[in-house]
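Entry 12.
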Amino acid sequence: MTRPNTRAESIKDIVGAIYGMTGILEADLVRRANEGEKAVLGEYEQGAMLAAMSHLANQATLLAESIVEDEELVNTPDAQGESREVTS
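Predicted 3D structure (tokens):
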């Protein structure tokens, strides 16, 4: 797999993790809102999950930016007017 594809797969994994944590938080908040049901996660656990989601989102952004930078590098003409190829 090429480097941009590997990073794109990492972004997909990160988004999947964020989606999964969002579902857990949402289910817990619904439990808390229903009478007679007790939430499983406390405020600390919810905060920790939100911090993790923020960190993951930042990592996905950095990966996406690196893909864009590599594409710009490939499409930038060198001194002889030829496009460079990145083969990593």
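Annotation: The helical segments are 3-33, 43-74. The mean pLDDT is 86.
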